[in-house]
Amino acid sequence: LVFLFTVVPFFTFTTSLMDTSSENQNSTLLHKRMALDGGTRHSKVAIFAMGWFWKPQRKFDTIKGVLRTTVGYTGGNPSSKAAVTYKTVCAGDGNVEAIAIEYDPTLLTYTTLLEKFLSLHDPTASKKRQYCSAVFTINDEQIEIVDKVLNLQRNENIQTRVESLGKWTDAENRHQKYYEKKAAKKTAMKSFSKNTRVPFSSR
């Protein structure tokens, strides 16, 4: 069973939001930003890529223990200073569509999230970089868990890439909670249509 690994240097960055110095700098900054948005002091973060990020966000948002999710882009050239947008990702800048999941480790384990990740998409499908199957790890503990879980799959056709988290960029607002916004818009349109319907007798 062979998995594709991309090695990216780890950085030591200490912050009160983390309980370990082995977290890489990129994940620390991402976690800090998510925590400032209302996260908890002892939460943890998992980052997965599994094709289009709209549906995975909706799925993970329903899992008990998941505090919040954010879709974004990662996996591109770490030394690039260029802005990352949906347009540049579609143009092939090397980044992939991914989801960052902040979760409560007292209610949910990284192993459970990883198993859910594998069940929510086809990890054997070969897709272009933007939509590839990937796990972006943030410390040695996650690397060990990923290696163990993927090997237990006993499927040599798994295409899931395992990479250390590099630069992360939040996706544009229109991509966040896409299906929730779509459902809300549909409900609003139905309500508007119902409230503005002209009585038959007035036609």
Low-confidence stretches: 5-22
What string gives the helices and strands in order? EHEHEHEHEHEEH
Number of strands: 7
Helix % is: 25-40%
Q: In one word, what is the shape?
A: globular
Content-based structural category: alpha/beta
Round the mean pLDDT to the nearest integer and report it: 80
First and last CA, distance: 70 Å
- Gyration radius over CA: 19 Å
Characterize the biggest β-sheet.
7 strands, mixed
Strand content bin: 15-25%
Total number of helical segments? 6
Write out the strand line-up for the largest beta sheet, numbering strands in chain order. Answer: 1-6-5-2-4-3-7
Helices and strands, with pairings:
Elements: E1 4-6, H1 25-36, E2 44-50, H2 54-60, E3 66-74, H3 86-90, E4 96-103, H4 110-119, E5 133-137, H5 140-152, E6 161-164, E7 169-170, H6 178-195
Parallel strand pairs: 1-6, 5-6
Antiparallel strand pairs: 2-4, 2-5, 3-4, 3-7
What's a quick, concise take on this entry?
The protein is an alpha/beta fold and 203 residues long. The chain has six helices and seven strands; from the N terminus they run βαβαβαβαβαββα. The protein has helices spanning 25-36, 54-60, 86-90, 110-119, 140-152, 178-195; strands at residues 4-6, 44-50, 66-74, 96-103, 133-137, 161-164, 169-170.
Structure report:
The chain has 203 residues and is of the alpha/beta class. It has 6 helices and 7 strands. Strands 1-6-5-2-4-3-7 form a 7-stranded mixed β-sheet, sandwiched between helices. Strand 5, helix 5 and strand 6 form a beta-alpha-beta unit. The protein is globular, with a radius of gyration of 19 Å. About 9% of the residues have low confidence.
